[in-house]
Amino acid sequence: MLRKFNLTIIFGLFFVFACQITAEKLEELTLSALKKEREGDLQGAIQDYNKAIELDPNYYVAYNNRASLRKALGDKQGAMQDLNKAIELNPNYYTAYNNRGLLKQNLSDQQGAMQDYNKAMKINSNHRDTYYNLGTLKEELGDQQGAMQDYNKAIDLDPNMDKAYNNRGLLKQYLGDKEGAMQDLNKAIEINPKSLDAYWNRGFLYKNTNNLEAACTDWRKASELGVVEAYDLIKKYCR
């Protein structure tokens, strides 16, 4: 009995040690993939996630992260498969529901996107990205007031979310609140001085309020940041 007990302890310690090594390797591969993604090596990042999944087929984070890379590379079907798998492995993984909702929205499956966003919020009601994405979806569906509420919530959760200010500013402009729109676009640029969308949009707001000089300044900035379309406006309206 003593020998059997000792063997049980040994096998138990070996299992714990093996699990620890696996967890450390998964973390190492994930950090490597994230670094490669930041550097623009999307294929290299995918290879790291492939290795992580081979090491642990139940590592749902790798499926979710790989989906984002596949989507960026145009493989939307592969991205959908990965997100489905992530949710299958962890039905409470709200990030995967949010990402799948965004993918469905991009594929014009608005009803499916709405269901996934609502599921994500049911699991985590404080996820700023889900409120932001839901706001964009409601705008597509013509629900401006609902979109406004979602952008407000996203900003409440993260007062530094520049893209939420940008979208809310556009929506306020559409609804006739030019002063509120200007405040939001100014805030977006204050938070992120490289927000090309905010400069582009504020340029139109300036033009619509008869401040062409300020509009041209913003369009020039947008052009510097990479908005190719700004060049035509500069050529047409600016000296």
Give an overview of the whole structure.
The radius of gyration is 23 Å and the shape is globular. α2 (about 40-55) packs antiparallel against α3, α7 (about 130-140) packs antiparallel against α8 and α9 (about 160-175) packs antiparallel against α10 (about 180-190). The chain has helices spanning about 1-40, 40-55, 60-70, 75-90, 95-105, 110-125, 130-140, 145-155, 160-175, 180-190, 195-210, 210-225, 230-235. The chain has 13 helices and no strands. It is an all-alpha fold and about 240 residues long. The model is unreliable at about 1-5 and about 10-20 (pLDDT under 50).
Give the SSE order as H and E letters.
HHHHHHHHHHHHH
- Radius of gyration over C-alpha positions, nearest whole angstrom: 23 Å
- Average pLDDT for all residues: 93
Q: List low-confidence stretches.
A: 1-5, 9-18
Helix content: over 70%
Distance between the termini: 93 Å
- Helix segment tally: 13
Q: Give the biggest beta sheet.
A: none
Structural class: mainly alpha
Number of distinct beta strands: 0
Strand content: under 5%
Task: Please tell me what the overall shape is.
Answer: globular
